[in-house]
Specification:
This protein is mainly α. The protein has four helices and two strands. Strand 1 and strand 2 form a beta hairpin. Helix 2 runs antiparallel to helix 3.
Amino acid sequence: MQHSSSSSSRRSGGGFGENGGVVDDMKPLSAVVADCVRRWFLDTLKEAKAGDVNMQVLVGQMYFTGYGVSKDEDKGRFWLAKASRIRSSVWKVYDKRPGYNASDSDSDEMKGDS
């Protein structure tokens, strides 16, 4: 069995698409990751606006660090203030990486009290 290397079945620089077809315009991995992080921010923002306190904390962290969105400490403060009305411990995590949970901070303090 011979493999054909015709331009219709194989192109340099391309990758495989959904159905095994060749894709010519592959994005660099960094662009794919940046797009995923941006979509994560937008999904999180939607949930935060709907009232999810955990997502409000995460949006605040994302704004403070510029993760998935342009860095904006004022907007970060807004979202953390909104979440702090229900859970005051959120101020302990404003400068932490996105996803660091206020309850993680609480458990860290309890270890120090022992």
